[in-house]
Amino acid sequence: MYLADLARVMLRAGTLTFGGGNATSASIRRQMVDERGWLSGADFTLAFTLSRITPGTNLFACCSAVGYLVRGWTGALLCLLIASVPSSIVTTLLTLAMDRILRWPPATHLMHGAIAISVGLSLGGLWVLASPYLRQAPLLRGIVILTAGFALATWLSPIWVLAACAALGYLWPSEASPE
Amino acid sequence: MTQFLLLYLLFLKATLSSFSGMTALPILREELVVTQRLTDRQLNTAVVVGRLTPGPKGSYIVSVGQMLDGWRGALAAWLALVTPALLVLPLLHWLGKHAKSPGPKRALEAVMLGSAGLSLTAVVPLAQDAIDGPVPVLLIAAAALIFVRAKVETIWLIVAGAAVMLGVKMLN
Fold first, then answer.
1. What does the pLDDT read at residue A174?
2. Could you give the angle at which helices A158-171 and B102-130 cross, rounded to 10 degrees?
3. What ipTM did this prediction achieve?
4. Among the three residues B26, B57, B85, which one is the final residue of a domain in this structure?
5. Interface with B, mutate which of A45, A78, A108, A123 (most B CBs under 10 A)
6. Which chain B residue is nearest to residue A60, measuring alpha carbons?
7. Range of the domain at B8
8. How many domains, chain B?
9. Per-residue model confidence (pLDDT) at position B21
10. Do A68 and B92 touch (CB under 8 A)?
């Protein structure tokens, strides 16, 4: 696998995937684990979970971790740059155009539709990321941890929620799990 | 240069103290809106821009940077977004060695599921914002289903959703 292939996959996931970090992470998983086999599911899980306990934007940490696992430091820096630069340029250009866009009456409706789709994509991304564990790990464990995450997040800071989930998973009785 | 560095440090403070997409927002509001360098409307517009562009929703920080100091501000914000990302590499290097043992493996899977639960808490308010009738509900459901079932570039779903919503509003 060449750096150019890695760059192409990351560019596609980082620039063409809307719906936030979950949809983009799900897209990276599909491309690198399911379609190309560059990473095992366990490696992706490691990259994704460590990115969640890294301060800052989780998606960029996940891209760096995935790049590192595939091609070392060069891969990490390449993935980080490719995932962040084009989307940041698009963000800057849209900010510049926003005043003009908002003065155009149909823009509100267009944005409303786009945001609804973005929410759906985010939910779809969540399902793609979590479903291997919900399907193959015993259902009860999956539901308990997912619910704990959801419930705890309403009053605890994210890092403590994840720490509680990690402790729950660590202490849960051993059983077969995906990969 | 000093202005650039100050902006970078301000954004870095916000990103370093957050562990998910929008958690830096209260810090930015306190630093920028309360001190009247930015209005609430501008901050909200930046959040909308972040939702409409590819990549993480947290990229609204780049939009905030652009509003504060043009391309230089956007560059400072981008740098502050990517700097903490590299902190994952030492974690990966040291913790990766133990990841295959049963206990840590179960802990990692639990964090994966826990983050899904955590992310749901972030999606719910976005959904509440978007839903004002049956059409957005249908769009959300269709987008989620298509993303899971088919390999369609999400940009086309965004275009289709925007067009459907415009069509429905014009018919009404």
1. 66
2. 140
3. 0.86
4. B85
5. A123
6. B85
7. 2-85
8. 2
9. 60
10. yes
